[in-house]
Structures
1.
Amino acid sequence: MSARRGQPLTIQEIYAAVLRLVDEGGVENLSMRKLAAELDVNPMSLYHHVENKDALLRGACTAVALGLRLPPDDGTPWQEQLRALAHAYRSIALSHPALWSYVNAHPGLVEQEGGMWEVFNRVLAAAGVPAGELVRVRTVLYTFVSGLLTAETSGLLAGLDPDGDAETTFDAAVDLILDALGSRVT
Amino acid sequence: MSARRGQPLTIQEIYAAVLRLVDEGGVENLSMRKLAAELDVNPMSLYHHVENKDALLRGACTAVALGLRLPPDDGTPWQEQLRALAHAYRSIALSHPALWSYVNAHPGLVEQEGGMWEVFNRVLAAAGVPAGELVRVRTVLYTFVSGLLTAETSGLLAGLDPDGDAETTFDAAVDLILDALGSRVT
DNA sequence: ACCTGAACACCGTTCAAGT
DNA sequence: ACCTGAACACCGTTCAAGT
């Protein structure tokens, strides 16, 4: 018999429940059986919508990544666009810290993070980074932001700036690296 | 009866087996039962030497951290000492990538990473960083290296530099951030 | 002091069976 | 098409018992 109240059980419904469990207790708090209980469903029903636990997590990560708000290709200066990209990425990371930490430790898990890399490429090209160095520069910049967010999601950035919050420190650090980049490309 | 060949089972022996398992299959490859099998011992015997699995992992991480080769306090320039510190840290991360990734995602797991923070403080003070900004600068620098190593341990840095290996990219990135720091303190 | 076996409450996943 | 129950091979950990 069907213990469920409504319609079949959608993948969105499943992802939402995954986020609830992971947000509240980390990735290690997610189990197929707990997830089924959260959805008021038999554990085995999940396997009709998802290949296995790994695929489920990958799917949830991709779903979150698609929510990335990429800066548009208007004429604004590259520094501003990079800042906007960094903040968009940070916003997603902070809304699901545990899941982001998991993705960060397993890169390649989500192939296209909402087209982030293409935008990154465009802005860096506009900044004057030669095509041959693009991937390297992009990777280094990304790792920098990734490191900052690792610190922030673990509370290492909290109360670090006497006059402000973690965002102040994040901004200052991004400015630092943008200055360094600027002095290289000009 | 004792299925073991020799003496009681030392904590060093246990940590060594933990490293073997984690190095070869990641932290998720470590289970108390597999570890016991690796040591040719009853699973329950482990609990006589270690409180539980979390404490075991924490202990193994601390043991590794104690192997950090800190740069001595000779008169060498601060840039060179920071580079040496970064390389010492990198060396440990690369020798146990999976364990390092775990520590990186769980900061505060190992309290004193072999006195790394004290050395960091000393060198930054020598570089002219005001005492009030020391922790913030240190944290930002650390997160930068942490991000680079996350990339390197996941293979993102491999083959990025046309003329060299991942170390070349690592060095170039460290130089970039040292330049940025230098232009702030002088 | 150190080790052990049985037991408990969990896991992910397969498979044959139900509607 | 979608769901389910029983089953299998795993987990971490407790506890009473052995030497």
2.
Amino acid sequence: MAIQLYDSLTRSLKPLRPSQPDGVFRFYNCGPTVYAPAHIGNFRTFVVNDVLRRLLELEFGPDKVKHVRNLTDVDDRTIGQTQKEKRPLAEITKKWTDKFHADCAALNCLPPHVEPTATGHIPEQVSMIECLMEKGNAYRAADGSVYFKIDSFPGYGALSRIKERELKITNAVADADHKDSVSDFALWKAYKPAEDGDVKWPGPRGASEGRPGWHIECSAMSKKHLGDTIDLHTGGVDLLFPHHENEIAQSQCCNGTTFANHWYHSEHLLVDGTTMSKSKGNYYTLSDLLEKGYSPMAVRYALLAGHPRKQLNFTLDSLHAAEKALSTLRSYRATLSAQGGTPDTFAAVFAALDDDLNTPGALGALFTLVNRGTAGVDTAGFDRVMFALGFDLNAASAPKAEAPAAVSALAEKRWAAKQSKDFAAADALRKELTAAGWSMLDRKDGYSLEPLKKA
RNA sequence: GGCGCGGUAGCCAAGUGGUAAGGCCGAGCUCUGCAAAAGCUCUAUCGCCGGUUCGAUUCCGGCCCGCGCCUCCA
């Protein structure tokens, strides 16, 4: 059964199908800018795209999906960071690329098949800009920068439905002096010694040395790794305009063909009802949540608990709920036998996923089945569902924290009191442990200690 | 101002023209020195007002409230 996915361009549900004769599904997902740790809002997009990647593999076969996700390693923010830290660009971007990879791995996201970087594709970008200049879609500005001429592309605005004249005039006027029109966007930015440090490359013919504008990297890298027409292009809603709109303009003017057959945008993660930002103090990284005692898998679960095309209000409670839900799945998995399953047991789960990536619907269907018991279910069938959702049930439920000596001592005392049936003392000690932030779990033959979740 | 999205139980969140999945929390019960774990049970008429309809939470219109984007933010 085909995967139906919302297409932002036609605003309708469309089936996902490879368009090339080789049957390979070409999938480009806009990746992160590596100048700081990605936050969980960023990861919502990447986790959602990971589920998509997994569904595509199940649908077309693991070797019939080509997944490309870029790393933006040169732009205003990365350069700004090098100036702030007085360190080379490559050092900064390496650091945050490594962190991004570690976080992705913790969240059990499959690595893309190709992960191109902007700095690794300067010639490709330059060549595309030259192509656009030759075709009259781009022009050199007085300072040596190159801009895309929006008027030259009649289709501009089709994706975002934004007409040039409807744009709110902001402080974009800063660069306006060099542009023919305020709405034209940079393909190549001329080198500015005071701001750019040593970050510069030889420019397109006729332009100054400098660096690529942000949008051109995706056009150039998708062309190189996936070809002129790709089957699916995805990203967060915020990329719809101007980033994706500009990519379409660049690619279609240069290549003369449809850039992407399908566009998909996942919605924002909100915290406290608003979008995350450092100034609001509601900015979470994965590390922040792990420090609070939550597991990466719970974060993944929480990110999938809302419909990907709907804003999701993230709360710490949702992580608690996720932790519990995963624990239920873990015990359920443990009761399953290796064989004897009925093939279509989890059809409802896949039906939900195939229907516009309805992850909360899929989770609902999954628990309905789990609550029904283990009849007709075997490990292989269940594991297929876990693969699709990307839940690694073997991953630790939560990082095992070592109890401080003082806490261990209290626990030992309480255990001894309990063994000697001094329940009053045992209860008093339990209260002390709670006050110290630890929970003591008794078993027949011993006990374990777990830190209480921090608020 | 332009474009778009949403308002479903204490919280999170699916869904359907015929009286509403699921997770968490909470309550009760079973089990158990206590706690935890496990099991069972219980908890909503879907923002407001009209309209269409035999029937609307689901379609249409209006209103109220919230959120996002509008040139470099996933």
